[in-house]
Automatic annotation (TrEMBL):
This is Gnk2-like domain containing protein. PANTHER family: ANTIFUNGAL PROTEIN GINKBILOBIN-2-LIKE, GNK2-HOMOLOGOUS DOMAIN-CONTAINING PROTEIN. It comes from the Eukaryota. Residues 30-134 form the Gnk2-homologous domain. PROSITE patterns: GNK2. The keyword Chloroplast does not apply. Residues 1-26 form the signal peptide. GO terms for biological process: defense response to bacterium; defense response to fungus; killing of cells of another organism. It is a single-pass type I membrane protein. It is found in: Cell junction, Plasmodesma; Cell membrane.
């Protein structure tokens, strides 16, 4: 009887462990769906570069903290505004959202160098920036 209870208990523990790991292990799908670049370029030394770097950095840290995994941002420097938007699928963990946005940023900036606007849509997240306010 003692042995039986031990086995039963062990089976339950194993089930809980398996369930727990499958729940936690949701690897974000960072496959790129689309990357779109504005054809317009900013020149080297344009203050927009600083604004853009600020906005993208903010999006990467704030989006995973928002309950909706959705955030808009505006750069604080008055001489060249950058507007950004980041979002993640809600079934991601916060750290997976951050990882996905990092991959989205890399995919976007690799394809769209020195552009005045760009976006990358990945399977599980998306990122976009422009020189004007937008919603989407
Ligand atoms: C999240 O849900 C979407 C469908 O809404 C699905 O395509 C995607 O693969 C899911 N991602 C994860 C990490 O489960
Ligand atoms: C990502 O894309 C590759 C190549 O198209 C595909 O083999 C892979 O299954 C995709 N990954 C996911 C998680 O959908």
């Amino acid at each position: 009887m003692g042995v039986y209870h031990l086995k039963f208990g062990a089976a339950i523990i194993i089930m809980v462990l398996l369930y727990g790991t499958t729940m936690v292990r949701s690897i974000p799908n960072t496959n790129v769906t689309t990357v779109l670049c504005n054809s317009g370029k900013y020149t080297a030394g344009d203050p927009f570069a600083t604004s853009l770097a600020y906005v993208l950095e903010e999006l990467l840290t704030t989006t995973p903290k928002h309950k909706t995994y959705e955030s808009y941002n505006i750069s604080p420097y008055p001489n060249a505004f950058a507007y950004g938007h980041g979002s993640c699928n809600r079934n991601l963990t916060s750290s997976d959202c951050a990882a996905c946005l990092g991959a989205a940023k890399t995919a976007m900036l690799d394809s769209c160098q020195s552009r005045i606007g760009a976006r990358a849509v990945l399977h599980d997240c998306a990122i976009r920036y422009e020189q004007y306010p937008f919603t989407d």
